[in-house]
Amino acid sequence: MTERFSRETLLLMAILATVVLILVLVALLLSSWQWSWLGIITTLLIFTYPLGWCGWRAWRYLTEPWMRLTAYTQSLNEGEQRVVLSQASRPSLTEGLVVEIDRLARHRLQAVQQQQSFSLLLAQVFDNWPQPVCAFGESTILVYANRTARELRGISLLLGARAGDMGFVFSDNQLHHPSLQKGWQNQSIRYRLAEEDYWLFIANDISLPLHQSEMIIQNNLVRVLSHELRNSLTPMASMTDTLLEMQSWPPEQVRQVLDRVRQRARGLLNFVQRFASVSQVPQPRQEWFDLSSLVEQSRSLLPGGTELSFFGEHRCHGDPILLGQVLMNLVKNAVEAQLKPESEIQVRFFHADGMQFLMVEDQGEGFANLDNALTPLYTTKAEGAGIGLALVNMIVARHGGRIRITNRPEGGASVELSWPLTIRSP
What we know:
Blueprint: H1 2-32, H2 37-77, H3 95-126, E1 133-136, E2 142-145, H4 147-150, E3 169-171, E4 174-176, E5 184-193, E6 196-205, H5 207-245, H6 251-277, E7 287-290, H7 291-298, E8 306-312, E9 315-318, H8 320-337, E10 343-352, E11 355-361, H9 388-398, E12 402-407, E13 413-420
Helix pairs in contact: 1-2, 5-6, 7-8, 8-9
């Protein structure tokens, strides 16, 4: 603004200087003609009016079009779209500038209308959603927030404000908010509209499902622990009561009671160790090894008449100790599920599309409940603890893979493990 006013002042001073110079020249000319001072002053007064009028017209000619152009640009910048700059108000030397201003104004109007249409579409879709939904435009400026998002406690949402100013942070190319961490699941989707990037942020309240899941786990934990403790402590209490009721303690009978108490105690300790192993799975140390050697070790679990067949690739990439435990658990489950003394357990392993696949199939009774088979502490076996498959699932997850369980149409169960082949074979 200061620079603009200084240039206008210089222009005005230049016009005034020109008028004064002309008057001085006229005065000098009349003086050279030996006019009287009265005549010179009278003539200068007569010349002052037309010269002032010409200077004023020159000032209007040079500044008024620019003032109109400035007012026109300011109106467009403030969002007024009905203002039109007349042809007469356009300086011929700046016609290109006027064209560019009109083009930018139309582009901005189109962007504003498109953003308004987009906000209206979001309002129609998400206003009644029970989940908080926010949309951020260019430079992460908030352009929309539904009713549920505006009612969130601890978050002040202001349209036109930046995401960072409202507490949102970027992490792993995703939007998060510190107030929506515990009990919330945040999801943000990036998309492009009219050559601009937008972010759609959705938060799901998962506190109730988490609480229900925790209650199910706690109930299963109490059920399994009470079952194991009852099975172990009840016989121990009964044998000690019988021993205490006796008048004399025959050494042989005392030894027999103590031996049974020891067996029960060891069984209970073994259960506790297996239970703790589910939450103590270490990070895998992956390397190349021969999977067939682990299959041979699993043959020690087979009863008489049961065969274990191995098909496919021998070289496997993973943690041999953890995967050995996986194979032991799967073979043990297959042995316990067999319906007849003579049966076959098949182990298949192969590579495909950068993934490794390990399949164990048996000829047993199959899974009684596929939906809960991987749930920790859930079991349909009379003497099971529901830990084997949960441990297998956790070990495979540590390798970045997943587990898939099915019942075979011809009878028996199938467990398929898949995890990525992270490095190339040497």
